[in-house]
């Protein structure tokens, strides 16, 4: 009787670098999603992401939808062939693939950074079309270490040095980013591909010393010889991230306890309570106030933010503007509001459906809010509204200027009150009503990483 005997290799067998149980543990957080997009360039990192994800979904029976997104930056002659390689690999796995092309003139400086921004913009646009819940990326342990070193060279603080998160709720373009391979070394990813007989694309720019990331990779190998490995750097980043998260939670609590908001726009807080806070909390609270009154996440220079902070804790009565926001302080109170300036918020004419105004308010209106022959319904700032300031019932305790950018609704010169009237000023005594809701939106985007170093216009600290 013949017995099948497995062949015995001549030398020792290298253990599997990414065994099935570890892969399943890495990808298990993806189980809660039903529609995902995978960013795949064709390099070893993202290709391994694609291969392992495909094996995991088939092994576990994950029933969600997934699409591979490949961006052809058209910066190198072979980029089109690489995109086709990704598409063929995805189709062989039974996954759809969309190639997104960065067309038009290319920048002559900061090419890698601008290409990164374009990549996220293209993928975000596609994900809006497909209603994908999150973008899965192939960032790994070595990427985390490089990010830490890069931000260290820029003088980053707690926010920057906390590195990348495995689950980032509000990344570029507001995308939710998932990084299941963040704890895996690049060598393990390459070994996993080699064990499966896979090939991948190689971008020569990754080895070009003119790019900072390439130089950091060389530095990493030297640091590892001294005991400062990628694992150690990632552990440090994780420790700093825990401190950062604690800071953010504390600032959220401070904002909830100390800041009073008027539904029509301005905010205020007790000045003495502000003075008692540690400087880091004061600076982060100012960033929160900037975002809240302006409707956009700002990135003020650290020196200007510190100058505003010092004025608010020391000068008796003062008023100062920073990035389109006015800060006004008297003996007891600090107030902040959006500055109308030379370009006040726009006027939206013909409200219908659901939309946003000025990054601060969400409106919900019937698809048709006017009858036959009626004038269209308009939404705009107080400074543009057809109203006399004498008709306004000004809220007590607030400067009148604090409401220059308050939302006002009108039709054919007559002020209209929405069904939900708490977000607007009380104007006149004979206002018509409209079947429309207007509510204040939460801050759009994440607040961390918003202090800018004085010597670097492009990077946060």
Description:
- The chain has helices at residues 20-27, 44-60, 79-92, 111-130, 141-153, 158-161, 186-195, 212-225, 230-258, 271-275, 279-294, 302-314, and strands spanning 35-39, 65-72, 96-101, 134-136, 167-168, 177-178, 259-261, 267-270, 318-322, 325-329, 333-338, 348-349, 353-357, 361-365, 378-381, 407-411, 414-420, 432-440.
- The chain has 461 residues and is of the alpha/beta class.
- It has a seven-stranded mixed β-sheet, with no helix packed on it.
- A hairpin with a 3-residue loop joins strand 10 and strand 11 (333-338).
- The chain starts with 19 loop residues before the first helix and ends in a 21-residue tail after the last strand.
Layout of SSEs?
Layout: H1 20-27, E1 35-39, H2 44-60, E2 65-72, H3 79-92, E3 96-101, H4 111-130, E4 134-136, H5 141-153, H6 158-161, E5 167-168, E6 177-178, H7 186-195, H8 212-225, H9 230-258, E7 259-261, E8 267-270, H10 271-275, H11 279-294, H12 302-314, E9 318-322, E10 325-329, E11 333-338, E12 348-349, E13 353-357, E14 361-365, E15 378-381, E16 407-411, E17 414-420, E18 432-440
Parallel strand pairs: 1-2, 1-4, 2-3, 4-6, 17-18
Antiparallel strand pairs: 5-6, 7-8, 8-11, 9-10, 10-11, 12-15, 13-14, 14-18, 15-16, 16-17
Helix pairs in contact: 1-2, 2-7, 5-8, 5-9, 9-11
């Amino acid at each position: 009787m013949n017995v099948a005997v497995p062949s015995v290799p001549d030398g020792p067998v290298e253990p599997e670098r990414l065994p099935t149980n570890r892969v399943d543990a890495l990808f298990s957080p993806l189980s809660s999603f039903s529609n995902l997009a995978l960013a795949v360039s064709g390099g070893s990192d993202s290709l391994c992401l694609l291969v392992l994800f495909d094996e995991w979904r088939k092994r576990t029976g994950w029933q969600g939808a997934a699409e591979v997104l490949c961006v052809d930056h058209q910066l190198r002659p072979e980029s089109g062939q690489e995109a086709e390689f990704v598409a063929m690999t995805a189709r062989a796995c039974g996954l759809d693939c969309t190639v997104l092309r960065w067309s038009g003139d290319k920048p002559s400086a900061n090419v890698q950074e601008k290409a990164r921004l374009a990549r996220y913009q293209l993928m975000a646009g596609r994900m809006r079309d497909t209603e994908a819940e999150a973008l899965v990326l192939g960032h790994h342990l070595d990427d985390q270490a490089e990010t830490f070193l890069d931000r260290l060279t820029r003088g980053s603080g707690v926010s920057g040095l906390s590195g990348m998160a495995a689950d980032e709720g509000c990344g570029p373009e507001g995308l939710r980013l998932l990084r299941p391979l963040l704890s895996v070394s690049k060598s393990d990813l390459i070994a996993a591909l080699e064990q499966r007989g896979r090939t991948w694309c190689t971008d020569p720019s990754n080895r070009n010393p003119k790019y900072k990331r390439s130089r950091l990779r060389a530095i990493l190998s030297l640091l590892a010889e001294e005991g400062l490995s990628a694992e150690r750097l990632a552990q440090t980043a994780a420790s700093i991230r825990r401190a950062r998260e604690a800071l953010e939670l504390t600032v959220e609590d401070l904002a909830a306890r100390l800041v009073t908001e008027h539904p029509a726009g301005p905010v205020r807080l007790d000045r003495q309570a502000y003075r008692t806070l540690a400087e880091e909390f004061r600076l982060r609270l100012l960033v929160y106030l900037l975002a809240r009154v302006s409707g956009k996440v700002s990135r003020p220079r650290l020196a200007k933010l510190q100058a505003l902070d010092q004025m608010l804790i020391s000068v008796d009565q003062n008023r100062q503007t920073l990035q389109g926001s006015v800060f006004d302080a008297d003996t007891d109170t600090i107030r902040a509001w959006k500055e109308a300036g030379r370009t006040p918020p726009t006027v939206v004419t013909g409200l219908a459906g659901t939309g946003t105004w000025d990054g601060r308010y969400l409106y919900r209106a019937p698809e048709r809010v006017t009858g036959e022959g009626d004038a269209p319904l308009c939404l705009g700032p107080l400074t543009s509204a057809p109203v006399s300031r004498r008709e306004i019932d000004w809220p007590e305790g607030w400067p009148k200027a604090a409401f220059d950018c308050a939302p006002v609704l009108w039709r054919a010169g007559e002020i209209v009150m929405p069904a939900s009237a708490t977000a607007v000023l009380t104007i006149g005594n004979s206002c018509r009503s409209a079947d429309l809701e207007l509510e204040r939106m939460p801050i759009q985007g994440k607040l961390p990483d918003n202090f800018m170093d004085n010597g670097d216009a492009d990077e946060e600290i």
